[in-house]
Structure prediction request, 423 residues.
Amino acid sequence: MLIPLHSPAKKNSWLALVLFLAVAYVGLAATQYLAACFSEKPDLVSLQRAIQLQPGNAEYRYRMGRYFSVVQPSPEPAVASYQAAIALNPHEAHYWLDLAAAYALLGDTSRQGDALEHAIVANPRSPEVAWEAANLYLVRGETDLALKEFRVVLENDTGLQYSALRLCWRAKPDADALLRDVVPPIPDVYASFLSLLTAKEETASAAKVWEQLVRLHLPIERRHVFDYIRYLVGQRDADQARLVWQQAAGLSELSAYQPSPDNLVINGDFSLDVLNGGFDWLYAKSPDVSLALDPAQSHRGHRSLSITFDTAKIEDAGIRQLIPVQPNTRYDFSAYFRSEDIEGAGGPRFAIQDLFTQSTYFASEELKDASFWKQVAGTLTTGPESKLLVLRVQRVPAGSPIKGRLWIDGVRLVEASHDDSAH
Prediction:
């Protein structure tokens, strides 16, 4: 649309209007800028000036409330400032949360509860709001309301999961109730809960969490399985550890790492990656012993385990495997080895012991003086309480210098009756 400006009076009027609008705009922008600058300063006078410049800005009112809550604790003016902010913008959950905290300082539990409810309504799915609300509910002794908000945290914030679970357990140390009402069906949350319970040595409750985790039929990170089995072994609960390993087969891509009647040793031919966890081979890094999978040397498969010694004092090669077994049962063990330039008194050997009693059930001949693949074999019978063996490459005599290289392959342990039937 074109506005005709033929007369000087009309032109002057239009210019005056434009100038007025420009001045008004600049003034408004300057006011907003000055108010913003004043609001950033942590002193009362500056905050008051910001509010005077922009009395309709809810955030400046809220910052005034924060000043009276934190810098110069004064609950009454803090409440008044928060209420003023909420009157201008009732949809900011953190305004309501800080108002609830101010009411708590005044001992006004009724209004505190009302403010908490408004905060949750303003943002019901925010983990930050839920976290603050849950903690305030805990202080108020309203456990059920706190647990309800902690569930929102657990569903939405991975960074607060462990802390939330810790507070939930402190408030209600009942695994069944928490699994039913609070812990969402998310594998990572279950794993965090499992970690919390094992740290507290709540073995029975941890077993319930694991059972529910398995029932989700969702992938589980291997590290959680390894940590749980490590805990169970430390608790001497070999039966549960064995069950966990079996149940994790399809959930953690561990199907290839399961024992079989034909061989209780997992990955005995080293064809799979060494996991350093669970019931696969476990190893400890050492500057004196080098462990490597060697594709250039093998007995039957496509690689073997190479162990290079260059040390003055060790007790074993730093690699071992835990093997669940039955008590009072006869087993046959066999393995293949070859060596190169092994120097030192004695030599390395395979040893199979009860993990808990340290009773030695089998010790092989020394693994040395073999430039070709050579088999070692023997039979052992477990004790009346034996459920978990440890297979390792032991240094004999312990603590003596040793140098050279050893390869092992085809490591096998099988129940004697099964081995006899196989032959």
About this structure: The chain has three domains: 32-123, 159-258, 282-422. DSSP finds 15 helices and ten strands in the chain. Residues 24-31 have pLDDT under 50 and may be disordered. The domain at 282-422 is CATH 2.60.120.260 (Jelly Rolls).
